[in-house]
Amino acid sequence: MKIGMVCPYSFDEPGGVQAHIIDVAQHFIDRGHDVRVIGPCSPETPVPSFVVKGGKSLPIPYNGSVARLSLGPAVDQKLAQFIEQGHFDVLHIHEPNSPSFSMRALKLAQGPIVATYHASSSGSMLLKAAAPMLRPLLEKVRGGIAVSEMARRWQVQQLGTDPVLIPNGVDTSMFVAARSKEAPASDGVVRVVFLGRIDEPRKGLQLLLEALHIDRSRNNRSDTEPELTVDVIGSGTPIDTPGVAYHGKVSDKEKARLLGKADIYVAPNTGGESFGIVLVEAMAAGCAVVASDIEAFKAVCNADSDSPAGLLFRSGDSDSLQQALRRAANDSALRNRLANAGRARAVEFDWDHVAASIMRVYETVADGSTVTLEKPRDKPLSVLKTARLQANSPSPLHGAQGECEEDKE
Asked: Pfam family of this protein, just one (predicted)?
């Protein structure tokens, strides 16, 4: 099958949506499909050979974060060439609500189109204002996918579409292997890893630093308690704090190494997440996960099950975070239970399962025609209600009460 994919966010900066697109494209290529990807990307940024570099991007506030998007006539020109030369059986547009390559691709293209909604967008006034313009464009989408129940619910309530629920896939093999190579040392220190941009408040680093200060300032602190140290992975200006080491942006290999030798992965995010890829990576690496109780993380951690894969604390509450971290640090048996449940949970997000569900969507919408440019004289397509596809096996997130845009940094 010839598959075209459109990414709205720049490949110049690491992010969960970008990683998802690269991973699923590579998975399909490895299985004999012909896949091409286009998205914002500077000429000097290294990317896989199947990625068409769409040019530089600008930082634009979007969904509670700052996304690097591309706008302007050059975007339409690059997309038109990509679509015309691709002769795609399916065009898979990620985040069609995003005012960048994706929304423009949906405007320009016609034919077998699939869309994946990653962000919940519940607080986006821009998207709510743009909803009347978006609805006619979304009628072109023949197969809709949401990566979380929260993202699906927003689409249903705000835009009237009803996508099928298929979670993000994660290549867990590197992280599973890292644990055997980098087992935590038994030296009276509990190692914690945080991943996220330092200067992005919703990632929660400041909350974590406050929790560490509270922990070190306690009057009831025991000399026998293990010390907490933190490795911070992510770009931004380091904040000098005792026991905290900053590594900046790192490769996936180095990230896996740091997770492999950690006892705890902490996710103090305060919102704006619709999944939680790095939580799954940490689970695969054998970390005990301590996470805020936002809806996305509750879902990934299977919080309402008999064997939750994470210890949750109140979002935005540094005291609650400190108590959760100290509880996990002091109780090695609890950490082992969380790590074992996390390993089992991570298997459910393996790409073999997730990609098979995505391919079923492609096969459902493909009709033997190819994706073409919509001619100006063409009348709008009639309403094509998004197919409710019944997967052979239930999605691991189906029915979960969970909030989680995954940013890998």
From this structure: Glyco_trans_1_4
Q: Look at residue 219 in the predicted model and tell me its pLDDT.
A: 80
Amino acid, single-letter form, for residue 218: R
Torsion region of 184: left, alpha or beta (phi above 0 gives left; psi -120 to 50 gives alpha): beta
Is 282 within 8 Å of 342 (Cβ atoms)?
A: yes
Cα–Cα distance between 295 and 303 in angstroms, integer? 10
Level-2 CATH architecture, domain 173-347:
3-Layer(aba) Sandwich (3.40)
Instruction: For residue range 326-379, list pLDDT tens digits in order.
Output: 999 999 999 999 999 999 999 999 999 899 999 999 999 998 888 999 876 444
Query: 110: part of which helix (H) or strand (E)?
Result: strand 109-110
Bridge partners of 115, per DSSP, are: 93, 144
The whole-angstrom separation of Cα 112 and Cα 92 is 9
Inter-residue contact 89 to 2 (CB < 8 Å): yes
Burial of residue 101 (CB within 10 Å: 0-12, 13-18, 19+) is buried
**Rounded mean pLDDT, 141-148:** 92
What gap in Å lies between CA 296 and CA 275, rounded to an integer?
A: 5
Q: The domain 2-169+350-373 is classified under which CATH number: 3.40.50.2000, 3.40.50.720, 3.40.50.300, 3.10.290.10?
A: 3.40.50.2000
Going from the C-alpha of 33 to that of each of 18, 22, 172, 274, 383, the distances in angstroms are 19, 14, 22, 28, 30
What is the value of pTM for the model shown? 0.72
